[in-house]
Fold:
Amino acid sequence: MLDVRRLQVLRAVVTSGSVTAAATHLGYTPSAVSQQIAALERQTGVRLLERIGRGVRPTAAGRLLTEHAGIIGRSIADAETALAELRAGRTGLLTVRYFATAGAALIPPALARFRQQHPDVRVELKLIDPDDPLPEVAQGHADLAILVRTGPPVRDGVHLVHLLDDPYLAVLPRHHRLAAKEAVDLADLAAEPWVSSEPAGPCREVVLAACAAAGFHPRTAVECDDYPTAQGFVAAGLGVSVIPRTALDSRHPEVAVREIRNPRPVRRIHAAVRETSLEQPALRALLTALRGAACGRD
Structure:
């Protein structure tokens, strides 16, 4: 493989017309320049320069390599510029994994704010609900993931940033007896048929843990795994449900929504990033935008 440094020395000699002028330009001694040219000629097996008076001129092989050295030099300069842009957070690609309600509630306003400041950074979004996105972050397949965390500590090298505490609210048929209350105790729902709105995973674990603390296990009458469908079943009088506040921006007209207490189920939404990725200015800016969007939900 040709030595890039030697190619640039050859180019300096050819463009300046002499070893001495090239040495002055590069900050080398003439002897060091001559040694580099000799080493390149040994590597290529051809003569690259010939003497003309007090100067030198390239052979056909020397002209060929000088042209390519110029291309390489421009490519290196372009690479250095691109790297500086990336380090400054002005360019690059961020891959984000998210679950559905976080996508609707947090990501659109955060991304709009982020793009105002970083218009040339591409953000690739992928819905990964109901799978756990943490392995994708840990393995380097994603730069950031939005998740609900209830289990054991996260993997080494992964950092969690708390974004939002998202309380669950009781969703009742509009004329239900409990709809007359401003808030309901979770135990008030113990005898009711439930419309399950959560697939298996950390969100359901939050609800079941709160029910256990209230002394019961919900009796599920209808299984579904999305919040709008659950509201439809509740509106039809087939049961009650509990749904996170962020998922209730659009409410069915035939349901009543009430606060829950004693205890109040709360899912804690985090952003997960690799600790090494926090060095990226663009990623830090996206985290700031997500925290801003979360504050707007409080």
Notes: The chain has a mean pLDDT of 90.
